[in-house]
Design a protein that fits this description.
The chain is an alpha/beta fold and about 325 residues long. It has 12 helices and 9 strands. The strands form 2 sheets. A 7-stranded mixed β-sheet has the order 5-4-3-6-7-9-8, sandwiched between helices. A two-stranded antiparallel ribbon has the order 1-2.
Amino acid sequence: MDEARQQQIAQSERAAHRAARLWRNQPARSAAEIERESIRFSSVQWAWLRQAVFDRTESHKPLQYILGNQPFGQANISVRPPVLIPRWETEEWMLRLAGMLNIHTGTSSAKEVGQRPLNILDACTGSGCIALGLACGLAPGLAAITGVDISNEAIALAEDNLALNSMLIKNKVGFFNLDLQAPGAALRLRDISSSWDIIVSNPPYVTPSEYSELDPDVKEWEDIRALVPLPADADPCKVQFRELDPSGVSFIVQLAKLAQELDVVDSQNTSLTGTALPRLVVEIGGEKQVEPVCQAMHDHGFNSTEVWKDMAGIDRVVLGYVKV
């Protein structure tokens, strides 16, 4: 049989097949449908998908924990329970702050402008997202960033993320396990660096009443210490909510005091003299916390404050300045 005849027979068979499908009220398969049908999950992939659906729907496991990562600025952050999952609100202000710092130097490195790198402390670093986001987004050599956290699991994850993003990082980064509410915390920080220029933080600020209304996705998976300000040495498994600060700002007040102890408010800081850069940058939980946080900053040496709203129009960040 010649080739032309074979093609004619094949075309006839395809036409008959389409006619049969149409007779059964079934549309003929498109090329895209045929291609999709050729894609099949392996048994391992099906098992992962079934487990993922179960974890999300039955166990309320956050999607980020299921997928294992969360983009944050230029960094890709691995996430695992119980370390706090990076939020878009935090990413937003981190990028804005990075822009401020880059404008301060004209996006030049510290060496190019004849300055030492800015020593930035990331308090309550968690996954390390803020520290690593800044390290990736700032001009090369502009800053030396140190992240500290009370949680051993958080520091282990932050160090994993440091390794994961090593090719993207343009500034020095280090992580340390440290309880900022413990006696001697300021002394320990002075051992890490003799001077600190800027403190940034996404601290615990959720109020007890807010925590009681959080979804299981949060309460059952993320470390309460990263969400609610607890007293020093408190057992996170035995929290007495009626004894907690109802305003949610107690840790931020301690952070402002720590900034004063570390001389962050020193007007003679040569790295920041003459600049419009903040010395303390803390995330908050809305308008209700603006006044007490601003007051805490003023009480501990910051003579000017500013509030940033997030893209949803919610008061999200308070910045403390020392203006001469």
